[in-house]
Design brief:
Elements lengths: L1 E5 L4 E5 L8 E6 L2 E5 L5 E6 L2 H4 L13
Antiparallel strand pairs: 1-2, 2-5, 3-4, 4-5
Amino acid sequence: MKATYDAETDTLSIVLRPDVNVAESDEDKPGIILDYDAQGNLISLEILDASKRVTEPRRMEFETTG
């Protein structure tokens, strides 16, 4: 998994499966783009105008449980 924030375009991209090709993209809600593989599995998402939608787009916290 990889997350990238581009301050120039104010875009936050989260790639869940970097080794899989995008077969279809869907703008589920305005400014939220979901990418799917050929089997319909979510492989990445892109958040446009991220600084307006995410509290701190330049900061990320990762946690596991269990």
